[in-house]
Amino acid sequence: MFNILNLINMNRIKQLLYIAVGLSFIVSCTNLDTVPEGGTVTSEQKTLVAEMNPAAVKAELAGLSASLFGNGVVYGGTRADDFGFPACCLTWDVQSADMVSPDDGYNWFSVGSSYENRTYTYANNRLQWDPFYKDIYIANGIIGTIPSDIEEATAKSYRATALLFRAWSYLNLAQNYTFKYVGNENEPSVPIVTNETTAEQAGANPRAALKDVYALIMSDLNESITLFEGFDRAGDKSAPDQSVAYGVRARANLLMENYTAAAADAAAARANYPFLSKADANKPGFNNADASNWMWALIIGPDNVPDGYATWPSQICSLTGLGYSAEVAMWRDINVLLYSRIPNTDIRRNWWVDENKLSPFIPAGYAESKGFNAYTNVKFAAYDNGLGTDAVNAGDWCLMRSEEMLFIEAEAKALSGDLAGGKALLENWVKTYRDADYTCESSTAADFVNAVWFQRRVELWGEGFAFFDLQRLEKNMVRFNTRIATNFTDNFTFNLEAKHMVRLLTLPQREINANNGIDESDNNPGQSLLPIAPKYGAGLLDGVTN
Fold first, then answer.
1. Cβ–Cβ < 8 Å for 158, 146
2. Banded pLDDT at 535 (limits 50, 70, 90)
3. How far apart are CA 119 and CA 525, in angstroms?
4. What are the beta bridge partners of residue 400?
5. How far apart are CA 159 and CA 142, in angstroms?
6. What are the φ/ψ torsions at residue 109 (nearest 5 degrees)?
7. 228-277 residue pLDDT tens
8. Mean pLDDT score, 412-428
9. Can you tell me the distance from the alpha carbon of 342 to that of 455, in angstroms, rounded to the nearest whole number?
10. Tell me, what DSSP letter sits at residue 191?
11. Nearest Cα to Cα of residue 495 among 543, 532, 453, 527
């Protein structure tokens, strides 16, 4: 069981930090003021701990990424949808209009497509809560150990990393439980737990106002960027650095509609990361952190994939030889409404088989032999880069790449008054890397936002951005219309208005039970709005951007 109170209680019994400074003593990673013998560690000794033995804190840093992938992140290995952040990304995409999944007992993510995960006792609900608060817990321990005025370079990078992870975790949580930032600043978001939160405070911790959550996010990111100055992660993309911190702040600034700042941060973030070339984009991929455009990643190799079924390739890679896709046809397809808008000249159209189940990525007849649907994705390569031969289901997961930063920069430029600059960025990128015939015809900033949104939907499909983009842009979720036959199954065929309350996730019941600061009436009402009737949203069928 994991709830916010555990963040404090576990600190009392775990996270041991060893150091020899003439004598040995043991302190809590989160609470360096009190040692087991009852003595007090001075501020000078705290600094000495971090400066003399930063390697002791390094073990805690490894736990930040470990909370985000692997079999049994939340439930300990009993569920095929319990593989950390990539599972969150898959949930967010099936909650959108862009990813089509089967309504089948083998589909562990069906409750995302139907929005039944708004039921606060459902496992999927916790799967979008626990990994982030686990990382917040670990980050708080490191932040409480290493003081803000630390001078030792390695210890500075450790504190910067912890601040980055804490901010990133809260940014993901905030988008699940509250609508867009502007206009909802005072609405309840999620409880805030920092390294300064006491056990008593955590036990009665209300939902913080959205503005307070973002204030912590921005404070953490600002400090992280400063501390990362001069840090070289030596090619290890699982370790964030200053470019990643700029990237997360670019996301936050875009969400807060700080457009000038968002554009500047995105440009700084992507400066040293070439885009994925047209040649490399014209074949299955998106499984290797060595790609030049990947800025931050979860490194998932065969050694840390204990179960080939509780993995992202099992659930979304159509070309692997093991797992739910390969063995029981749990294919992930693109919505035909979106696919139909991709020009024939755009190489990304090859990321999915067409209505005849053909793509240049696979031999003729392969899709039929495997039982693909029309529009099944072939975007993600198997670990061995083969066709149906891989039985490992490893594969790195991208947390940030330069193309996303380009989209943020272009959109933010246009919305800060430089429409021509934003259009030039987007048009040059698409023409160079994806579709030589592309022309951006937007004449207003609002039209241009839609143009960028379309590029995001195609380029970042399957990577976890689709649902949060709907929320950020306050877009209706349109899965079907009256003009094109839908490829959604009946129970998932519904549309939702932009501000429909069922689009907000509910806080898990176990958090409400453990936290005296939150009761049933404080939760989002999504559970009470279920079930959603198929074909709901008839008024959204026509005249909207799909």
1. yes
2. confident
3. 10
4. 296
5. 6
6. -110, 15
7. 999 999 999 999 999 999 999 999 999 999 999 999 999 999 999 999 99
8. 98
9. 9
10. -
11. 532
